[in-house]
Design goal:
- Helix 1 crosses helix 2.
- The chain is elongated.
- The chain is built from three helices and eight strands, in the order ααββββαββββ.
- By secondary structure, the protein is α+β, with helices and mostly antiparallel strands.
- Helices cover 15% and strands 31% of the residues.
- The chain starts with 85 loop residues before the first helix and ends with a strand.
Length: 264
């Protein structure tokens, strides 16, 4: 049989052959003749904004030189820079503030009032008893002394509106507040059986004969009624009754107790 007429058998597929890598010439690197990167030190071409290796910015802003302290004293318009007399500025600012406080206390009444008011709020208080008490008028059995005996079931009875109760003090003091207990008793059932003041006027006299007046409104209920004052060098306090409720025949206007508090 001729070779040309031989039958063709099955042929196994050939295995793929991996292509060999082709070595290509590498392009020339950038010429490192620019400034080095401030982060990694890699040279870069002039004009680049970021490092070609770490991408850090190549152009950084220069910090201005520190200003002399005399150009940075004014605290509200200065430019804060390191090493420009910061400690001295703080010392001068503290001295200026302290000087303003002293000047306000000595020369301006409002500044002195604010200063004393802060002291009242930060300091303590203590009750002070008057050396004497008098009344312009009193109902029988209800003298003025009943208003300062520390008992609320006894009271000063005013026969009519306009009557006043004056408390005197031997030593001038800073009057922080006044507490008044209205009515014949602090018990709710007994409270409404007598007349009670609903509005009064406090007239405070100081050692230099200055007079301070304050209108006080009382709630028509048992318990203490507090009034904040804040007056220095007080020598007397007069309580004048202006309005009342529950009045009737044989029912005097009752002030169970009046208390005074000084700053400690």
């Amino acid at each position: 049989m001729d070779e040309e007429n031989e039958p063709v058998g099955a042929v196994r597929p050939a295995k793929p052959v991996a292509r060999r890598p082709v070595v290509r010439p590498v392009a020339a690197d950038e010429t490192p003749d620019g400034p080095p990167c401030p982060a990694c030190g890699t040279p870069n071409l002039p004009g680049r904004q970021f490092c070609r290796r770490c991408a850090a910015p190549l152009r950084t802003r220069e910090q201005p030189a520190a200003l002399p302290w005399w150009r940075t004293v004014w605290p509200f318009r200065r430019r804060v820079r390191g090493g420009s007399g910061r400690a001295l500025r703080r010392t001068l600012l503290v001295l200026v503030v302290a000087g303003l406080l002293v000047a306000g206390f000595l020369f301006f009444p409002l500044g002195r009032y604010v200063f004393e008011d802060v002291r009242d709020k930060l300091g303590g208080t203590a009750e002070i008893s008057p050396t004497g008490v008098t009344a312009s008028a009193s109902a029988p059995g209800h003298p003025a002394s009943a208003a300062i005996d520390s008992l609320t079931n006894k009271y000063w009875g005013a026969p009519a509106l306009g009557a006043s109760l004056t408390s005197s003090f031997g030593t001038p003091f800073r009057l922080v507040g006044v507490v008044v207990h209205t009515g014949v008793s602090k018990e709710p059932q007994e409270f409404r059986r007598g007349a009670r003041p609903t509005r009064a006027e406090l007239i405070v006299t100081t050692k230099d004969d200055k007079v301070h007046k304050k209108t006080v409104t009382f709630n028509d209920k048992p318990g203490k009624q507090e009034t904040r004052l804040g007056i220095s060098d007080v020598v007397s306090v007069r309580l004048v009754l202006r309005e009342a409720t529950g009045q009737g025949e044989g029912r005097p206007i009752a002030v169970g107790e009046i208390e005074f508090f000084k700053r400690t």
